[in-house]
Design brief:
The chain has 290 residues and is of the alpha/beta class. Helices cover 24% and strands 28% of the residues. It has a six-stranded mixed β-sheet with strand order 1-2-3-4-5-6. Strand 4 and strand 5 form a beta hairpin.
Length: 290
């Protein structure tokens, strides 16, 4: 088993416990890079890889090397549809996408066949778990609509007397009951009275052939309340021109979802788990005092 995760996080700690319970050999590393970790294995070894979407994207972008995984489990952050399809095309039916938290445990798991039908989903709730998607008034939202994710189940620590756990995540559900994580509720941007989900804009930006990574944040605006600020990292040897990128975005985004500010960075600051270091990025973009 290859564990490309830090052990101070619940996801990594749970995987370590699973490996010990199964008596499985486990490979750890100071630097969480999938390619080098797979490269240390023999050509006939086909390990289980447990990691996060950010590291999987870097692995694919660099040109996958090393042993071929028998299976890849990813979680802890949304798996975009484009990245999901790329991984399935490379790995075949060996990709699993989970959703859970320290307080709720494992909530849902998408199997490879579900990911082919609904790329990027986290599947359906596991037996015993129930997931509600609610609006600001606490009413259930309809199919395809985004709502706050509430979870109830035998291993869920409730956040209120009603037995439900407010995860703080936003999600939607398709007609087959597949769940999709749409980001954090505290990251939603309200610009000119319109709700904008940063993950949606980030996925469009990341689909540009010369963009390797993209992050969208909010900045205060005296007219609109909030405006969108996008940070993008170009692919190696790519030359990103702001106006060309804007023209490309206008064909794909509604006007209120367009970033007012575009910044090109060498790298997006992230923590050891591959999650965005929001405070550091805000500092780099001048959105908070240094």
């Amino acid at each position: 088993m290859v564990l490309a995760l830090p052990l101070h996080h619940g996801y990594g700690l749970a995987t370590l416990a699973m490996a010990l319970a199964l008596g499985s050999p486990l490979q750890l590393a100071r630097r969480y890079e999938i390619g080098p970790m797979l490269g240390r294995l023999g050509p006939r070894e086909e390990p289980l890889v447990v990691t996060v979407p950010t590291l999987l994207k870097r692995w694919l972008d660099a040109g996958p090397t090393g042993s071929r995984p028998s299976a890849v489990i990813t979680g802890s952050a949304p798996l975009g549809a484009d990245l999901c399809v790329r991984l399935l095309d490379h790995l075949g039916p060996r990709l699993f996408n989970l959703y859970g938290s320290t307080e709720a445990g494992l909530v849902s798991l998408a199997m490879p066949e579900q990911l082919r039908q609904a790329p990027g989903s986290v599947g359906r709730p596991l037996p015993g778990n129930v997931v509600r998607l609610v609006d600001a008034a606490g009413q259930d939202v309809g199919e395809g609509q985004v709502g706050r994710m509430l979870v109830r189940g035998p291993f869920v620590l409730p956040s209120g007397a009603d037995g439900w756990r407010d995860t703080g995540d936003l999600g939607s559900r398709d007609g087959q009951g597949n769940l999709f994580v749409r980001g954090r509720s505290d990251a939603m941007i309200v610009s000119g009275g319109e709700n904008v989900y940063p993950l949606e804009v980030e996925e469009v930006l990341s689909s540009h052939p010369e963009v390797a990574e993209a992050v969208v944040l909010a900045a205060s605006d005296p007219v609109f309340g909030q405006r969108l600020v996008a940070a993008v990292v170009p692919r190696p040897r790519a030359v990103l021109e702001e106006e060309t990128l804007r023209e490309w975005l206008r064909e794909r985004l509604e006007r209120h979802k367009m970033p007012r500010t575009l910044r090109v960075l060498e790298a997006i600051p992230r923590n050891p788990l591959g999650k965005l270091d929001r405070l550091e990025l805000e500092r780099q973009l001048g959105l908070t005092p240094p």
